[in-house]
Amino acid sequence: MSEKRTATIIAAHGRHYLAESDGLKLQCVTRGKKTNVAVGDIVHITLTSADQGVIDKIEERKTLLYRSDQYKSKLLAANLTQLFIVVATEPGFTDDLVSRALVAAEAAGIKAHLILNKTDVAAALPRTRERVAPYAALGYPVHEVSATAQPEDTIATLRPLLAGQSSILIGQSGMGKSSLINLLVPEADIATREISAALDTGKHTTTFTRLYTLPDLGPESAIIDSPGFQEFGLYHLSEGMLERAFVEFEPYLGHCKFYNCRHLIEPQCAVLAAVEEGKIAKMRHTLYAQLLHESSQTLY
């Protein structure tokens, strides 16, 4: 009888996965053509050789973060407890991506934080602080760091937040995400090279999502690095999920004249009234309308 193991998926590239089980790294494939496995998944594997196996089953996920466009969805990570969106003083970040990531986190039941990196770029700091203030006002913590100029302070700020959590770092390219990962996981470069070789990607190491365990911060502590991306489609979210994923809508839901109000152009809509009164940022309501439109376009 083939040996069976329970393992955690630590990297994914196409239909090839790398899993870790009690320190042993296993190259895995799925049965058939299904590729519904995500980094962070707990899986049951049947070994086909000393370091290879087939994934038989995915354990039920506590959470799943993914993005989607009109045609397909892309799993980002499973069993996360928190998400860190990395923004920086330079280059500029897009509010659209930040807001979409926050909505995705809310819809998935994952706590979200912002990391404002490169605070040493003094000239751009006041303006960047202004730009992240609306997110802080919604209750999302903002942690200011400078990975290159103040590495010790950065570690002191972020490491306690990672203890006992399964966290993911996301952000656009150029925000300094790699510098942060290298500070928080000193052996990340070596691990990434090993993963790259095991998955035979032959690609630049930042093109796949990977999980690093943080055993010194206690069991269950892990950090996931994801490729930088410029778009965050949320075509999979239904109307009901969307209105609940905008935390600032919550006080007004159920107070509109019509029970099936979509909060777009309806008369006596409590959400639209709050936008008019400045209690809900126009930028956020505009995104809500855009996401509602996208969710009606889904083809898969």
Give the topology, please:
Elements: E1 4-13, E2 16-21, E3 24-30, E4 42-49, E5 52-58, E6 64-68, E7 73-78, E8 82-88, H1 95-108, E9 111-117, H2 125-137, E10 142-144, H3 151-162, E11 166-170, H4 177-184, H5 188-199, E12 209-213, E13 222-225, H6 239-245, H7 270-276, H8 282-295
Helix pairs in contact: 1-6
Structure description:
This protein has 300 residues and is of the alpha/beta class. It has 8 helices and 13 strands. A 5-stranded mixed beta barrel has the order 1-2-3-5-4.
Q: Estimate the strand proportion.
A: 25-35%
Enumerate how many helices there are, as a single number: 8
Structural class per helix/strand content? alpha/beta
Low-confidence stretches: none
Strand order of the largest sheet: 1-2-3-5-4
> Helix and strand succession?
EEEEEEEEHEHEHEHHEEHHH
Over the alpha carbons, how many angstroms does the gyration radius reach?
21 Å
Assembly level: single chain
Which terms would index this structure?
globular, 8 helices, 300 residues, alpha/beta, 27% strand, five-stranded mixed beta barrel, single chain
Provide a brief overview of the structure.
The protein is an alpha/beta fold and 300 residues long. Helices cover 29% and strands 27% of the residues. The two termini are 39 Å apart.
